[in-house]
Amino acid sequence: MSNSPSALPAQPPEMGEAEKQVLRRFRVVFNAVKTHFQQVEKQAGIGGAQIWALSVVRQHPGIRVTQLAGAMDIHQSTASNLVRTLVERKLMETSKSDEDRRAVRLRLLPDGERILDKAPGPFAGVLPAALDRLDSATLDRLDADLAKLIEALASDLTDPQAEQVPLAQL
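RE: above sequence
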C-alpha cells in the first residue's frame, strides 16, 4: 500500500453555503414533523394519521371512506387501512347507509372521542397547519420549487404514489 497522494480516497465534494442552508431548513421541518408525531403517539397512544382520521370523522359524522380519503388527500386504500385499524381498536364504527346499502358510513365511538380529547393538535399535523397559514403566492413558489427539487432527485428513488402517503406513516 502506497502513501502517495494518489492512493488517498477522493475528498467528497463540498456543499456550498446555499445548499447547506437549505439542507438545514429541511432538517428543521423534518424534525418539527417528527417531534409532533412522537408527541401525538406518546400522549394519545396511536399514530398521527389515525388521529387525523378520527378528527375528520368527529367533524363529519357519517362520512364515507372515499370522503375521508379526499379530506386527508390520501389514496382510498390507505384510508380503508386506517379505518380497518381504527374499527379493530374499537375507536370507530362502520354502518351501512340507509339510502345506499353499498355506502359505508363512519362514526366515532366513545374511546375514539377520549383519544382525541387527550391528543395534542393540530390533528392534521404541524406541516399542513403551517402551510395553511401561508399566503397563496408563497404556496405557489414553494410548490414550483419543490417540483424542481423532486425532478432533481434520482428518478429511481422517487415514488409517484408517495404524495398520497400521510407524513405520519413515513
